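Q: Got a minute? One more chain.
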Amino acid sequence: MFRLTLTQEFVREATATESHAITLLRRAVLRSYDVEAATDGSVAVNWTYRRFHPRDENRTLTEPRSLTLTPQILIRGLTEATRRDLELIQEAGLRARFESQSGRQVVTTGFHRIPPAASARLHERGFITDDHGRARLTLPALIAMHAQDHRTHTTTPQGWARPSDAGHAGAGLNRPGRRNGLLYSGTSAALCPCGALNIHADTRDEARRRARDHRRTATAQFIREALTT
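A: Always. Here it is, folded:
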């Protein structure tokens, strides 16, 4: 289950099932809204609403609007070990089952068996759910794994430095004082572990914008390709 928060002229809150959440996200992508996943399993949707001016039909008014889907159990502790277990369950598909062994519930994935303590932890923390005996990943878990794959970062600009330190062959700033002979570089790189984002921008703000655009594009693609009702 998700907590749905719609912000427009007012704020409205409701609850949404996984199926309803997927429908809302797919609709947002079809309408080209900005969508961005977070590592806690939540998704933020932002768009601009346009309407005619009430007293001048030749003018339009714009209003920012947003929709946030927050899982009732936030995803925490997505470690490498946890992720390996989740990927085993995901790859097993219908073969991933909850079974009782020695009085304890365990998840089996064909030839593999996730230990009872780990199985219980995955279930209690909202990573997996019991779907009529089948063990499957929850929507928040899928969202969190996607967001973890696209944790972008930007680098700190070098600032003032001597041309030789920056790999340039120039005299630098010709001005008395501490900056004499120095060059300024505000260049910042934007990087993503997925490998699809590796760019240099003139400023760090621009690098951050490019990183945000990448995350939103990746989230939209994830919704189109990975989420089905």
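A: The mean pLDDT is 89.
Q: Perfect, thanks.
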